[in-house]
Amino acid sequence: MKKVMVTGCLGQIGSELVAKLRELNGPDSVIATDIRRPIDNPTVQSGPFEELDVNDYDHMLQIAKDNNVDTLIHLAALLSAVAEKKPQLAWNLNMGGLVNALEVARELNLKFFTPSSIGSFGPNTPKDNTPQDTLQRPTTMYGVTKVSGELLCDYYHTKFGVDTRGVRFPGLISYKTLPGGGTTDYAVDIYYEALKKGSYESFIKEGTYMDMMYMPDAIDAVIKLMNADPDKLVHRNAFNITAMSFEPEDIKKSIQKVMPEFDMTYDVDPMRQTIADSWPNSIDPTCAKEEWGFSPNYDLDAMTRDMLDKLKDRVEQG
Ligand code: VAH
């Protein structure tokens, strides 16, 4: 990955992945793209940036050619809760953008990454220790685009020889960007509210287990997978990865170890609860560990300590 083009670079994953790649390989090693150009944004200011609508194939191809990239990391997509409110827009953006990105990768022989999600599983998937290869009948538009994307990426590898790779991300927790319309966002919101108010009202109900991971582990996983020996990859699109599985009461107790007075109540959002109930309780990351050495570092308490430490200054500044 000497010269990487990233779509959706202003999102939760993109903003941190671009920063890490630029830290490792230099500011000019990444051409960051997104549909808008917020001039005061660190991702825009820290290196090459282009405005790009991923539904504009010709423009995407031109940017990749002009910057002589060797890798395309395609992140632009609507997340689960927003996608459920705007399913047609979600299909057009998530699938239209992906087809364009895969075509650019095929045309220019680029290495390719796009994420899937635990959202690619559905209510009749085995819920505990969900296998790498199993039934995938998601009941959300987000999940339909994710499982379709997995199949399309495998097709482009088998049919056209494109070096496509992906992971099924769990819920990702980070402090550098605000949550972007996902179902697992409660596990991000809770840290902000704990510092602002000392309490949180969860929109996901007690006892709802979901896989989660701290963003530094997610970024390391993408880079490790993209640098992995292709001959060792039995699977490609997309690997189960996870660092932990927890429910709202677990994260409450973890925060209380740092902030004993923290309290949590519930006001369940029926739509996001329905989405969460259709996803696994925990997935099995064995294939990722065996095929490319996936190895997360943060557990729930380590993540909590770091999140509260990093967020406290920002919350105090308002
Ligand atoms: C969402 N954060 O909630 C994303 C992710 C597994 C969840 O795909 O939509």
Keywords:
318 residues; alpha/beta; Rossmann fold; 12 helices; binds (3R)-3-hydroxy-L-norvaline; Epimerase_deHydtase; NAD(P)_epim/dehydratase; NAD(P)-bd_dom_sf
Short description:
This protein is of the alpha/beta class and 318 residues long. The chain is 45% helix and 15% strand. The protein has a domain at 115-141 and 167-318: Rossmann fold (3-Layer(aba) Sandwich), CATH 3.40.50.720.
The best one-word shape is globular
Could you name the CATH topology of one domain?
A: Rossmann fold
Number of helices: 12
Strand content is 5-15%
Examine the secondary-structure arrangement and name the CATH architecture of one domain. 3-Layer(aba) Sandwich
Query: How widely separated are the two ends?
Result: 38 Å
Largest sheet composition: 6 strands, parallel
CATH superfamily of one domain: NAD(P)-binding Rossmann-like Domain
Q: What's the average pLDDT?
A: 97
Spatial ordering of strands, largest sheet: 3-2-1-4-5-7
Note poorly predicted spans.
none
Tell me which ligands are bound: (3R)-3-hydroxy-L-norvaline
Query: Which range best describes the helical content: under 10%, 10-25%, 25-40%, 40-55%, 55-70% or over 70%?
Result: 40-55%
- Helix/strand order: EHEHEHEHHEEHEEEHEEHEEHEHHH
Radius of gyration: 19 Å
The first-level CATH class name of one domain: Alpha Beta
GO biological process, one term: L-threonine catabolic process
Pfam family, one: Epimerase
Family: Belongs to the NAD(P)-dependent epimerase/dehydratase family.
InterPro entries: Epimerase_deHydtase, NAD(P)-bd_dom_sf, NAD(P)_epim/dehydratase
